[in-house]
Amino acid sequence: AKYDIPSSLLAAQAYQESQWNPKARSYTGVTGMMMLTQETAQRLGVKNIHDPKQSIAAGAKYLDMLEKKVPKGVVGEDRMKYALVAYNLGVGHMHDAMRLAKEMRLNPNIWSDLKQALPLLGEKRYYKTLKHGFARGEEALKYVESNYDYKNIIENCTDAACSVKVLER
């Protein structure tokens, strides 16, 4: 509520990031339910990254910070989708994808157009011309779409057991 982020989206993101495992750790070194880097967690005041309450609060704060870095031309729910791209890839790669969308004569401020550009961040003929270089844009696209799929599942299940059962499929 503090950051005006739906709890169902944060729950979906925590599931996407760690399958709700507070001790999760990836090969890249991110850890906790919201899979934050140690540097980001420290910047956000996290004392124990494995404490679900601290991890989720920090993840929400970080997502809010990223949403504020989304250009003003992006409106509505698309702002959160762009923030999720930045959470997954970084703000620089989000801007690269927007630039690429514009070069493709797409509207860089609309999610349906940006998602056409994102996968191209992983193709050499495109990333060699971009400021921030190579990025797994296809992964970021799937990340955002999966977060919203999980959010919809969570919102449409009537109890927690239902959500867990559906997500485990």
Characterise the protein shown here.
This protein is mainly α and 169 residues long. The chain is 59% helix and 0% strand. The chain has helices spanning 7-18, 38-43, 52-68, 77-89, 91-103, 111-117, 124-127, 137-156, 160-167. The longest helix is centred in the C-terminal third of the chain and has 20 residues, at 137-156. It is globular and about 45 Å long.
Tags for this entry?
169 residues, mainly alpha, globular
SSE order and pairing:
Layout lengths: L6 H12 L19 H6 L8 H17 L8 H13 L1 H13 L7 H7 L6 H4 L9 H20 L3 H8 L2
Helix pairs in contact: 1-8, 3-4, 4-5, 4-8, 5-6, 8-9
The number of distinct β-strands equals: 0
Oligomerization state of this entry?
A: single chain
Query: Could you give a short account of the major beta sheet?
Result: none
Q: Sum up the overall morphology in one term.
A: globular
Extract low-pLDDT stretches. Answer: none
If you compute it from the alpha carbons, what radius of gyration comes out, rounded to the nearest whole angstrom? Answer: 16 Å
Average pLDDT metric: 93
Structural class: mainly alpha
First and last CA, distance: 29 Å
Order of helices and strands: HHHHHHHHH
What is the count of DSSP helices, taking H or I runs of 4+ residues?
9
What percent of residues adopt helix (DSSP H or I)?
A: 55-70%
Strand content: under 5%
